[in-house]
Amino acid sequence: MERNVSSPHNSTSFPTLLPFNTTTDINTTVKPFSVFDGCDHQVEGILFDLTLQCINVVVGIPANILVIAILINNRKDPSTSDVFLGCLAFMDAYFGSMTPVIFLNLYHWQSKEVWSALKFSYGVKDTSGPLFLSCICLDRFIAVLFPILFGQLKPIKYRLSISVLVLCLTFAYSSAKMVGGLHNFEKVFTGEVLATFTWMVVCNVSILWALKKSRGVGKDEMHPMKKKAFKMVLSILCIIVCNYLPLVVLFPFEDYYSPDVFRCYVQPVGFAFLNISSTIQPLVYLSRLEKLPFLSDIKKWCSCVSAENKTPPAQNPPA
């Protein structure tokens, strides 16, 4: 079920090669390229996906840029997961910026070349989100369950190495999607989503269970740092369930749908929940912050300006 290859607004139709012994008219008209590919009259699922992608443009891009700015501002006292969060925010901002191009290509350009470039951005979204979220879960999993090992792996070089590996996998997958024509390539995405979803759920449930047990006998309150980690892991678990569960539930039952229903409705709706994660993920991160670093600076600047405006001008003494 390769995204945007078998899905309606992501497919390219090629004429089927005929056997040599087939008697047919040589001048048969070749089916023209269509960005909707057979779903021109069943566009409800596609428009639902694009509507959610519009939210990525209006809300998601500014939120991701703000996340990146906050991470840069906190670079002197970074969290171990900041590298993964920064890469994830950058990829989500890039994906959101492609939405206007998608609309232009659907209703104006209708270009096969532009669509090939858009397939690369879909490949980035398919791969970077699940993999970087898995890296964040792995980082929290080691920190909570194996603190001694976490102390040894705390240097940023390990996370930079993992990030480079994830980016290489992302660009390799996206390039293969853009080229197309690979046999059973859609199974790569299916396996990736199932594997990362299973890992993230098991990992986060294990972390939550360990943090709950760490209260100790007779203690009702959790340690502040562990409480902060608990909220972070719980928020990630909510993201996983909201954005990835529909794909896991719907896509394995492809054979139970008719080809048109699956291509025109099930796939766009399932991917819509994945696409909107470009907005949900940065908003969840921002909601966990006790205060925005730039907000306090703006308040200080505004208070200084208002104080200067209220100060009466000095009067010259009489001659």
Task: Give a verbal description of the structure.
The chain contains eleven helices and no strands. The protein is globular and about 60 Å long. The protein is mainly α.
User: Which overall shape is indicated by the principal axes computed on the Cα atoms?
Assistant: globular
How much of the sequence lies in strands comes to under 5%
How many individual β-strands? Answer: 0
The low-confidence parts are 4-28
What are the key terms here?
mainly alpha, 70% helix, Rhopdopsin 7-helix transmembrane proteins, 319 residues, 0% strand
Sum this structure up briefly.
By secondary structure, this protein is an all-alpha fold. The protein has one domain (35-288): Up-down Bundle (Rhopdopsin 7-helix transmembrane proteins). The protein has helices at residues 44-73, 82-97, 99-109, 112-145, 147-152, 156-179, 186-213, 224-250, 259-275, 277-288, 293-310.
